[in-house]
Amino acid sequence: MPLVPTQEEQMLRESVYAIASKYGPEYYIKQTAADEPPTALWNELGEKGFLGVNVPEEYDGGGLGMYELAAVGEETAYAGCPLLLMVVSPAIVGSILARHGTHEQKDRWLRGIGTAAMKIAFAITEPDAGSNSHKISTAATKTDSGYVLNGQKYYISGMEDADAVLVVARTSVDEGTGRGRLSLFIVDVDAPGLTRQHIPTAIEAPEKQWTLYFDNVEIGDDRLIGAADQGLKVVFDGLNPERIQAAVMCTGIARYALDKACSYANERVVWGGKKIGSHQGVSHPLAEAKIALEQARVMTQKAAVLYDVGAPGAGEAANIAKYASAEAGIKCLDQAMQTHGGNGVALEYKLSNYWFMVRLLRTAPVSREMILNFVAEHSLGLPRSY
Question: What sign does the CA torsion over 287, 257, 17, 263 have?
Fold first, then answer.
């Protein structure tokens, strides 16, 4: 694990930040207010090859790994432009296709992710299933020519800007346990029978959240990714990258917020001409936030390395990284707002608009409670609690 950044990593980070900072929080806020996706930033990063760094070279990617994609995700967030679709398209779907897609499927979809010309959303969560994927009710029924999808998905990100969506559906039931056996399918966003409804949220981001409805959506056999009924094993090759990318969104926003807090604390003068940063009531909480941030960053880097080498501890590390980064992100942003006093909620200072994004990432894509359940059971060997 490279604790000292290589020259290549440093150059990657600097190049990504140079592009993203040209857009910055002003662009991010403007696109959000206009209900428009961050297309210009996405396209420029994609044209330079940064959004497909984890995709194999033979499919027009950078041939690197999750470690490098995490660096890209963190630097865009650090520039004030966290890209939620990065978590979904290159991280989740790109990883799954790279490991489980056929050559034809990779040529058809992964190549587009490699160039960032194609965006593929991801649909697993449902209103009644939550984190319990065994209870997914969206069903794919086998036909002579393929499958027919029926069901509903909930809180699906970025459908308004996606070309297709990777859907997790139940294809059979284990007679012994009653649990659903899952399979994964790529569905075009304009497929007949697929409709969507916007979910209004407090999150101030260009990407929107959607409820999806599948009403007799017909798909061919070529849309099945991996083996039928083996989708739960397949999907975790995308969920661990999802946790890593969610983590770097948090650490990137945390770095952004701490920079602004420290600049303000070094300039703001009150109480006899002293800068507020000289008071331990201001400096110590910021120092504590910095410590939490660096701990989270190291754990996230470890998770990315373990995933890239296929180590068995990648799942544990990805969960811990996501947990630590969400907590650090909230801590850093909250303390940055507190350091600004009343200005912390003034839109002019561009802090409060990130609050619900960071707060969301404590809950999604997997809640802190489910991570604690995972660590208690799988890391500590304690009895299963659910």
Answer: negative
Nearest-CA neighbor of 253 among 359, 371, 372? Answer: 359
For residue 134, the model assigns a pLDDT of 79
Instruction: Give the integer Cα–Cα distance in Å for 106 and 104.
Output: 5
Paired with 140 in beta bridges are: 149
Q: What is the pLDDT of residues 22-75, one digit of tens each?
A: 999 999 999 999 999 999 999 999 999 999 999 999 999 999 999 999 999 999
Long-range contacts of 262-268 (CB under 8 A, 24+ apart): 262/286, 264/339, 264/340, 264/343, 264/349, 265/339
Which residues, 6 or more positions from 344, have their beta carbon under 8 angstroms from its beta carbon? 336, 337, 338, 351, 352
Beta bridge partners of 170: 139, 182
pTM of the model: 0.96
In this predicted structure, which of 116-125, 127-136, 208-217 has the lowest mean pLDDT? 127-136
CA dihedral of 279, 280, 282, 288, whole degrees rounded to 10: 160
Beta strands in the chain (DSSP E): 120-123, 139-142, 146-157, 164-173, 180-188, 194-199, 209-220, 224-225, 269-270, 274-275
Separation CA 187–CA 346 (nearest Å): 42
Nearest to 51 by CA among 77, 78, 69, 28: 69
Distance CA 321, CA 158 (A): 24
pLDDT at 130 over 80: no
Contact 184, 235 (CB under 8 A): yes
Contact residues for 170 (Cβ-Cβ < 8 A; gap 6+): 136, 137, 138, 139, 140, 180, 181, 182, 183
User: What's the pLDDT band for 174 if we cut at 50, 70, 90?
Assistant: confident
Alpha-carbon distances, residue 8 vs 3, 5, 298, 316 (angstroms): 14, 8, 18, 28
Longest dimension (CA), the chain: 81
Give Cα 133 distance to the centre of its chain: 18
Write out the DSSP string of 167-214: EEEEEEE-TTT-PEEEEEEEEETT-TTEEEEEE--S--SSS-EEEEEE
